[in-house]
Amino acid sequence: MPMRSIHQQLLDNLTTSVILLDEQLLIQYMNPAAEMLLQASLRRLRGKAIQDWLMFSEEDLLLLKDAMKTMHPYSKREARLMNAMGHESLIDYSVNLSPSLGMMVEIQARDRLMRIEREEELLTRHATARSLVRGLAHEIKNPLGGIRGAAQLLERELADEELHDYTRVIIDEADRLRNLVDRLLGPHKLPNLENVNIHAILERVCSLVRAESADQIELKRDYDPSIPEFSGDKEQLIQAILNIVRNSMQAMHEAGTEAPCISIRTRALRQMTLGTERHRLVCAIEIMDNGPGIPDNLLSSIFYPMVTGRAEGSGLGLSIAQSIINRHQGLIECTTEPGNTRFQLLIPLEKNDENKR
Fold it and tell me: What CATH number labels 189-357?
């Protein structure tokens, strides 16, 4: 194989973005990773000024121009960069120069690495919490069964009907605790997989929300029609999304948010890493509200059972939603600030026969 072809294949398979510029900082070459970063093809950008497509800070742009004059390479860490589509990234980049080739800029997206680490930690913590809850539920349900059975036997032995009120309290409270433990565990069965359309699921959720809120909450939808059907459990996915939307509704209601609004947006994302697994195509569902936001001290633990910032909240809705999406090999992330809380559900679209329990 010719050496030039080998070099081309190496560049094409790098995850680092590589951009080659001439002395006027015009784009001469980009590898596929750089095309993804700029969200435009080399054919479109060849001969265009780099600063028109990557919004460097004034300081970074001056550094590039000085490096071209002096032919001195340099590196910079944790720089902020925005592409022409308005997407901001935290990056590390290096600049190398050659009299024959020009300036080569290598860009490593830091926010992507940080997101992968955060997702991996989130999945690990949620799996740990789920194992803990399962063990605790087992230890609670065994004696509950004994207490309930003993109360039933005692009720049969009591001749005085007035005393049955006490045994009935014991039985009812044992049943209430058992139901609470079952809710902590989330769905009992594996997903009933079938081809589902995510937009049909979202429309079902929207119809339920409109009925529950009596049209007091504005619903905005921005759907990506290119998202294909995928294998999932329709009822469980409705439950997961409805839990998140209800959480937003209740938070805005309790805070007295003026003109409450929930926006739902879908997008197809390519080459996404969820935890430790890379997926060719991922369905991203964003649920955004203009409510009060989530307190900083709760943000890292909102997907744990019994964690809630609302006085009337059970603390189970988000935990169950995360469990359902995990069973579909995806995850839920959350970012928040006052007036803008965003939950992002990420679900792989490619088929996988191994379903998470």
Answer: 3.30.565.10
